[in-house]
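Researcher: Sequence of NAD(P)-dependent dehydrogenase (Short-subunit alcohol dehydrogenase family) follows. Predict its structure.
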Amino acid sequence: MTVGKIALVTGAGKRVGKAIARGLADDGYALGLHYNSSAGGAQDLYEDILASGGKAALLRKDLSRPETAGELVREASAALGGPVSVLVNSASAFDTDSLADLTWDTWQFLLNVNAAAPVFLMKAFADQYPLPEGGAIVNMLDTQMNSASPERFSYFCGKFALDGATRLAAFELGPKGIRVNAVAPGLVLPSDQSQENFDSRQKLTPLGPGLGPQDIVAAVKYLVAAKQVTGHTLVVDAGQRLMGFGNSPIG
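Model: Prediction complete. C-alpha cells:
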C-alpha cells in the first residue's frame, strides 16, 4: 500500500485513463482526476474512490490550451495535501487528416492536446518544491506509431513529438530522481467501430483476443515501481507491432 502518495491522471473520466486512475487508487494513491468533457465518468470514479475509503479530487481543464496545463499539478497538490509523485498523461485527442487536407485548427488542436499539454505538465511536475521522492511520469503513446498512417497525420505527429519528449525529459530529469517512461497500447477498447469489428481485429494479432485496460494498468504500475527504468516505452499490444508497416487489417 502506497499510503500518502499522490497521483495525477489526465483523461481520468473515461476509457483507459479511468482504469489507470482506479488502479492507482487501489494501490493507495490519492488521485487527482483530470477531465474535460467526461464529467459524468470522472464524478462516478470520484465517488467510487471515496466510497472505498480513498482520497480524490476532481480537476477540470481544457488541454487544448497547453499554457494552462501545468496548473493541474499545483491544483492536485493543493487539493490533496502534498507534491504529486506520479503523473500519467493519458488524455489524448484523435481525428483524421492528411497533409493534403490539413488545417491549422486541427493541427494545432491535436498537437496541443497530444504533445504540448503533456510537456507542460512534465515541466510543472519537475518544478514542484519540494520534489516528490521517487517521482514517476508515464506518457501514453500508441503502438500504431510503428505503422503510422498518413490519414492520421496530425495525431501521429503529436505522438511522435511526445515520444521524443519522453526520452529527452528522462535524460534531463534523471538527476532530479524523476523517471519518465511511456506505454504504447494496442487494441484495448473499441473506438468508432462495432464490438464485432473490434473483436475481429483483435483476433488478427499474434496473441489473439484478450488485451484490455487491465493490461495497460499493469504496465503503468510496473513503470511507476521500476526504480531503474527511465526513457523506455513499454509496448502492450498483443504483438501487433510485429506485423510490420502497413498492417491495414489491424490499423
